[in-house]
Amino acid sequence: MNKRVVWMAVAGLALVTTGASAQQRPGAAAARPVDVPAINLIQKGKWAVRDSEGSERTMCVRDPYQILRPEKITTPCQNVVMESAASRATVRSVCAGHGTMLTRITTDTPRQVTVEMQGVIDGQPFSETYDAKRIGECS
User: Fold this and answer.
1) DSSP per residue over 82-138, as a string?
2) How far is Cα 84 from Cα 133, in angstroms, rounded to an integer?
3) Backbone angles phi, psi at 80, to 5 degrees
4) Between vectors from CA 129 to CA 135 and to CA 60, what angle results, nearest 5°?
5) Contact, 92 vs 82, CB < 8 A?
């Protein structure tokens, strides 16, 4: 498993950018889903993200929908919401020219989230689980 690809995928803690259930906001660079309750609960701010091997990093979450989009991918991804409940969502993403992935989000509280990701991005397969906890405001 390529750790760099995995961290780039989680650096998105950037979610749904386009899809069948998305609508474009005037002036917005990318479409957003109409409503994914489990993602809408996630608070903005500084988050500590720990992978299943114990590696940890911090990141600023300015938009909870960051979760579904790997940081290095700048083109829109087609996303299909497979499951959407109050505290859980599953989204399949196809990023043209980059690959596909499946992301499962469980929002334990608005300040604690589990993200499971698997797929192939830029020819590199990955599968990882992350626990993320809000630790404060972004600086």
Assistant:
1) EEE-SSEEEEEEEETTTEEEEEEEEEEETTEEEEEEEEEETTEEEEEEEEEEEEE--
2) 21
3) -125, 125
4) 30
5) yes
Q: What is the residue whose two structure tokens read 């409503």?
A: 35
CB of 8 closer than 8 Å to CB of 72: yes
Total-model pTM: 0.74
Spatial distance between the Cα atoms of 6 and 107, rounded to a whole number of angstroms: 20
Count of other CB atoms within 10 angstroms of residue 20: 9
C-alpha distances in Å from residue 56, one per residue of 49, 66, 132, 133: 5, 18, 9, 11
The per-residue pLDDT for 81 is 93
Hey, what are 75's tokens?
Answer: 């083109």
The whole-angstrom separation of Cα 26 and Cα 7 is 31
pLDDT, block means (10 residues), the chain with 139 residues:
47 38 36 73 95 93 83 80 94 91 95 95 92 95
Beta-carbon contacts of residue 29 (< 8 Å; ≥ 6 apart): none
